[in-house]
Amino acid sequence: LTERDVPDYLDVDNSKLTATFVRTPSLGDVPYPVIMEPNLVVEFYAKN
Predict the structure, then answer these.
(1) What residue ranges do the domains of the chain occupy?
(2) Residues 4-8: contacts with CB within 8 Å, 24+ apart?
(3) Considering the entire predicted model, what is its pTM?
C-alpha cells in the first residue's frame, strides 16, 4: 500500500487495516481550499 499522511483526528493501525476517529474533524482540517457554509445546509433542511 502507498504511504499517506494520516490526519491527526484518525488513529490508524496498518497491521490490522483499521482506522478509528479520535475526534470529530473541524472545517479547518480540510486539506484543500474550499468554501463551506454549514449554515446553508441547516437552512435548506429546515425548510424541507
Answers:
(1) 10-47
(2) 7/31
(3) 0.57
